[in-house]
Design goal:
51% of the residues lie in helices and 9% in strands. By secondary structure, it is an alpha+beta fold. The protein has two domains: 262 residues, Hypothetical protein af1432 (Orthogonal Bundle); 63 residues, no CATH class. The strands form four sheets. A four-stranded mixed beta sheet has the order 3-4-8-9. Strand 1 and strand 2 form a beta hairpin. The termini are far apart.
Length: 436
């Protein structure tokens, strides 16, 4: 039986999922037996309530997809990559394949609400990577018990892969590397769900163009000759354009400044002993620097915070209520782009606009900011063989991708920055005046 893309489905598969990106998703018998119980755990099901792109749906209405869908997609791409490695004769133990698929499925397990914003606005909180490890190690979690039922010690083996400590460098980089299954899925998924085409690339041909080589003392995934380069170029160009046009879109970043302002004011109230009603225990603990238990953290998701903002909109604190209302009704701050070449005056511009804000009775530290998201489309450190990607060339030593591809040579190690002033609508005229 063939799926819509022409790939053969597993004939004995019971669990077949319909996916907007990959068509019909199915796993062979052993992999299905591993994945099905993991999907049923409380911790993985929580990812249904965490949006993949946080507040991006305020700008791209279709971007309502969850980290659960992405997790399943990443596991499926890992399964396809393992099939490719097997076809070219790479020897991988069945247990190592199990670990790789589980790691791909669970790599985002510790993500907090509003995507990466949770850890940005609560600096005392653990990162989502740290929370993933904590949850996998916690004997009280369903996911830990499910992994240990499959194989004793599997939790630690999956953690080793996620932390890059695995004895298999090939699988470690497939889980987290320059070109990993996480990125392979989310570029396609985010592009489709936001309605843009920037992130689309040929996944089938990309996988078909991968091989494994022994180079500089260890096995590593590489590109099989020049024919495998075009889909890789499309992948990295797509990633670059998605950051420029979606992830760092001016309105998405403006929405994120509202959340930063909300949490900054919330933290002030909590630390002053004036916490408003509805502050989740996990949030309050992060603000005051207390240890957060796994079950309290796992109770945090997008729906928890959206419900809390409804309460905070009725708060007696004007700043907190204002931010909550703005988030709930999409009253976004305004932005003005700044020239990268004029970076030396950025501080002066912020100071001048901040003074004008204060003169109007606004707290500048909450309402005026410089936003400068930066991304490097393709990193390649000449002193680190594990960075970047290698191309296997006939009758020649493997070469770095950035030395073979004209496109990626131009993008290599070059930061792409989009600085902006962010401010309330009421300061629009002043902001336009001082920026010329």
């Amino acid at each position: 039986m063939a799926g819509p893309s022409g790939r053969e489905l597993c004939p004995d598969s019971i669990m077949i999922l319909r996916d907007p990106v990959h068509g019909l998703i199915a796993f062979e018998e052993r992999r299905e037996a591993l994945i099905a119980p993991l999907l049923a755990t409380r911790e993985v099901q929580r990812l249904r309530r965490v949006r993949q792109l946080g507040l991006a749906s305020l700008v791209f209405p279709g971007a309502e997809h969850s980290r659960f869908a992405h997790a399943v997609g990443a596991a499926f791409v890992m399964s396809r990559l393992l099939d490719r490695l097997e076809r070219i004769g790479t020897k991988i133990r069945p247990e190592a394949m199990d670990d790789a698929i589980a790691a791909a499925l669970l790599h985002d397990l510790g993500h907090g609400p509003f995507s990466h914003l949770y850890e940005d606005v609560l600096p005392r909180a653990k990162t989502h990577e740290e929370w993933t490890i904590t949850i996998l190690r916690d004997p009280s979690t369903e996911i830990h018990r499910a992994l240990e039922r499959w194989r004793e010690g599997m939790s630690e083996d999956v953690i080793a892969l996620l932390e890059g400590r695995s004895t298999s460098p090939v699988l470690s980089r497939a889980v987290s590397g320059t070109l990993d299954v996480d990125r392979m899925d989310y570029l396609l998924r985010d592009s489709l769900m936001t309605g843009v085409s920037y992130g689309l690339y040929d996944l089938d041909w990309l996988l078909e163009g991968l091989t494994v080589i022994e180079h500089l003392g260890e096995p590593r995934i590489a590109i099989l000759g020049r024919k495998g380069i075009p889909p890789i170029e499309a992948f990295f160009l797509g990633r670059h354009h998605m950051y420029q046009q979606v992830y760092h879109h001016k309105a998405v970043r403006a929405a994120e400044t509202l959340v930063r302002g909300l949490f900054k004011r919330l933290a002030e109230l909590v630390l002053a002993g004036e916490a408003p009603p509805g502050v989740p225990r996990g949030i309050e603990a992060a603000i005051v620097g207390k240890t957060i238990e796994s079950h309290d953290y796992l109770n945090l998701d997008d729906s928890t915070l959206i419900a809390a903002t409804a309460l905070w909109e009725e708060s007696g604190d004007p700043e907190l209520a204002g931010f909550a209302e703005a988030i709930r009704t999409r009253k976004l701050p305004k932005t003005i782009p700044l020239s990268v070449e004029a970076r030396e005056v950025f501080g002066e511009l912020v100071e001048e606009l901040s003074a004008l804000a204060e003169s109007k009775g606004l707290r500048a530290d909450l309402h005026v900011s410089l936003d400068e998201p930066v991304d490097i489309p393709y990193r390649e450190d000449p002193n680190d063989p594990s960075s970047g990607f290698w191309v296997s060339l006939r009758h020649r030593e493997p070469a770095r991708l950035g030395d073979v591809s004209f496109v990626l040579r131009e993008l290599r190690n070059k930061p792409a920055s989009r600085p902006r002033l962010v401010f309330p609508e009421s300061l629009r005229n002043e902001a336009v005046a001082i920026t010329g």
